[in-house]
Design goal:
Elements lengths: L1 H25 L15 E7 L5 E7 L6 E7 L7 H4 L9 E5 L13 H16 L4 E11 L1 H12 L4 E5 L5 H8 L5 H4 L7 H6 L4 E6 L7 H10 L4 E6 L11 H12 L2
Parallel strand pairs: 3-4, 3-5, 5-6, 6-7, 7-8
Antiparallel strand pairs: 1-2, 2-4
Amino acid sequence: MEWFILLVIIVVAVPAVAWLTQEGMIFFPQPVGPTAHLLSRASPLEVVAADGTHLRGWIVRGAAAPAPAVIYFGGNAEEVSWTLSDLHWPREWAIVGVNYRGYGASEGKPGETALKADALAIYDAVAKREDIDPKRIVVFGRSLGTGVATHVAAQRPVAGAILASPYDSMTAIGKLHYPYLPVSLLLRHPFEALEDAKKNQTPLLAIVGASDAIIPPSRSRALFDAWAGPKTWLAIPGADHNDLGVREEFWQGVLRFLAER
């Protein structure tokens, strides 16, 4: 009888802990430190969300006038200033990155509904700027941010979408990593991206690490196959989840895609 009681406690307690702590398992807010690494062309950008939350990041001005723009949505443990400072970005493009709620200097707490609504507000703010060409805005998502970028591309007119390590569903990813949990019943932030992908007619570049152990290429492929518009698949041999963005092939693919927009 004692072993049965222990088993019941385990069966009940483990899912309960997962339910209560899942935000800490999905989102890893990073603080913003000194920003000397940002390019001299970068200036602060603040967007006020629909609920009044202040979201903060930067815009790296482009050389063109008005400039085409990339709006970047980062991974779940990323403070975006480091990506904005990458020297691979083409000089004529403006590069926009605003930290998620609770990340960097942005207010609030992250969650799927809020992040998607915030992303639309960021797009709208950028598209209204006089120094941005609203017909040449590309959304760029990495890992967690691919679900956010896919949502923006389905809801707003964009010139293209670049998705690095995309996924079809956070639920599907959770089932891979936690097969002993009823993930579909527990997950409050499922980030189901397939329906948005099916609505998307914009050109897509999907970049995956062939050895990605966090978001396997099969889950990326499911999103890619559902995408309704023209699409390009770029798999980088030997690349894992966290080193994908440092590969030269990664940036070659990004630059080719942007040059065509």
